[in-house]
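Continued from yesterday's entry.
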Amino acid sequence: MSVLALLRKELRAYFASPLVYVVGAVFYALTGFFFYTQLVYFVQYGFGVNILGNFWTAFMAGAPYSLSMVLLLVVPLLTMRLLAEEWKLGTIELLLTYPLRDGAIVAAKLAACALVIALLLLGTLAYPLFLARVQPVPWAPIAASYLGLLLLGVCFAAAGLLISALTESQVVAAVATLGFLLLCWAVSWNEAATSPPPLRLAAELAMFDHFEPFARGVIDAGDLAYFAAATVLFVFLTLRVLEARHWRGRR
C-alpha cells in the first residue's frame, strides 16, 4: 500500500461514517449563527470607523463566538479515531506490516484530517461572499485570515493525532485533545494571574496570540514559524509514541 492509497483509505473512513456529517452540520450551524448575530451587533453599534474590519476580526478570533473557537471544538471529534481506533481494533499491527515507514502512516492520517478541515473551511467562504454582495470587502485580509485558520486547523489536527496515539479510547482522546487545545489556546488570557515575565512566555506559547494577527489580516513570519514548529513537534512526538509501542511489542 502506498501513502496515496492509505490517504484514500483514511478519507473513505471519514466519509463512510456519519460522524463527519454531524460534525459538519454542527460546525456550519454554529459558525452561521455567530456570523449573523455578530454582524447584526456590529452594524447596530458600530465600534470605530472600520466596522466591517472589526467585525471580521471578531468573527475570526473573538472569544468565544468565533470561527476559530468552533474549529477548536470540532477538530478533537475528527482526530479521536485516527490512531485510538487502530489500537482498539488491533488493526494497527496489520497497518504496520505495510511496506511504509511510520512517518508515511502518520503523514497520511494527518493529511486526511487536514483535507476534511480544509473542506469545512471552504464552505465558510459563503460568509465573505455574502458580505461582498452588500458592499466591497478587502479580500487580502480575508485571505490572510483563512491562511491562519488552515494553519491553526492543521496544528490542532497534529495535536489530536498525538493524543489519539496515546490511548485506545476515542472518547478519552477527544476529551483530552479538547482540554489540551483549550489550554494551548488560552494560556495567556488571564493577565492578572501572573507577573509580566511568565505572561510574556505564555503569550509566546499561546496559539491564540499567534492566530490573532492572521485574523487582522497580518501575515508575520514568526507566526508562520510558530505553527510550522508546533505541527512538526506534535508529529515528531507521535512518531516517538509509535516507536515506543513497537519497542514494547517486541519485548
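--- second protein ---
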Amino acid sequence: MPAVYGLIDGNSFYCSAERAFAPALRGRPVIVLSNNDGCAIARTAEAKALGIRMGDAWHLIRDRQGMDQVEWFSSNYALYGDMSRRVYQVLAERVPRVEPYSIDEFFLDLDMPGDLALRCWRLREDVLRITKIPTCIGWGPTKTIAKLANGVAKDRPKLQGLCDLRDPAARARLYEELEVGEVWGIGGQTTKKLVSMGVATIAQFVALGPELVRDMLTVVGARVQAELRGVSCLQLAQMAPTRKGIAVTRSFGRPVTTWPEMREAVAAYAARAAEKLRAEGLQAGHLTVFLHTNPHRPDEPWHSGQRGARIEATADTRDLIREAVRLLEPLWRDGCRYFKAGVMLNDLSAPEVQARLFATRSPEASRKVMAVLDAVNLVHGAGTLRPAATGMTRAWSTRAARRSPRYTTRIEDIMGATVL
C-alpha cells in the first residue's frame, strides 16, 4: 500500500483534446456538446466566464449576447478515448503504478524518494509537452484526500495546479474551510442529511464519532471518514474490474417512424455492443432492448417499451443482432415517432474453453469469423466490414454537425504537413 496517493486530472479534458490539434483555440471560449449536439458537457475557463453552465442546452443559449465568440464542437469520443490512453502511457512510464479512474482522471502511486512537489511539477510538464493536455495534481496519504487535493488545486490558481495535503495541520486548516459535500463519496442526499444535523464542513464531519458515522452512513460513510483522517482504506486497483454490463444507447438525429429504420438502428447498436464485448474478452448471456418516443413532446403520442431475455452466451455480432431484432419486433408500434433506442448486454463472462453440451452453434467458428471482422476494421477503420443489417446510409444517426476529425484513430483524418 503506497504511503502517498496522487490524483491527476485533465483540465476541461474534452476541450483540451480539441485544442491539442487546433492551437488557434487557445485562450478562446470552447465547449463540447453531448450526443445530438444537445447540452454543454465540457467548458473551458473562458466559456465558464461567459456564464455557460454544465448541462446548458446549446439551442437555448446560442443566441445570447457573447455566444458568437464561442467555439463549439460535437463530441468526438474516439479522439478523447485515444488522448486518455496517451496520458496514461506518459504516467505509466514515470510512476510505479497508475489506476485509471475515469477518462480524464488517474490515481497514482507517488511513494517515491526525493522532492515530491518537484516530481509532480515535472509530471504535469511531461503530460502537457507530450499530449498537450493541461492537468492538476493533488496528493496525500489516502485516495480520498488525494481527490480532495486535486479539487483544491483546480479551484485555487495560486497553487499553480499542485496541492500537497500530506501535512495533518494543513489538512485541518483546509477542512475548516471546505463544505462536507465536496468530499468524494458524499453525495447530495448524504450532504443534506449531515447539514440537517449541523455538520456543514469537513472538519465537523471528521470530528464525529466513528460509531455514529457508521450507524448513519453505513460502512461506506465510515470508510470515507477514516480516509479523511489519514487512514488508508482504498487501495490502488491492480487490474481493471470486470465489467458487469455493456450498453449502447443513442438518441436519433431525427425521429424514426418506420420499422426498417428502427431495425437497422438497433442492429447497428447491437453490432457496436458486440465490438465492445470482444474488446473486453467477454461474452454476454442476457440481452435487453428498449425504445421510446420523445418525453419532451407532449403533443405527440407517447410509447416506451423494453424486453430482455437470457441468450446462449455469445460475443458474435450476428447472434446478438438476431436476438436484438427478435426482442425488438413486439415492441414496435406503427404511428409513433421514436426518439431513442438501445441495446444492453449483461451476465458477462469469459468465453468457455470447454464445448457446451447443448450448444446450437460452433464457438470456435464464431471466434474465427469475428477475429477476421475485428482485424479488418482495426486496419482499415471502424465499419469497413460490417453486417448489411446495420445499414449503409444511416439517416437516423445521431447529429454531429461539428465533430472534429479523429486525428489519432482514422488514417484519413491524420493531419498533413506541406513543405514549401
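Residues 259-279 form the longest helix (21 residues). The radius of gyration is 24 Å. Will compare against the first tomorrow.
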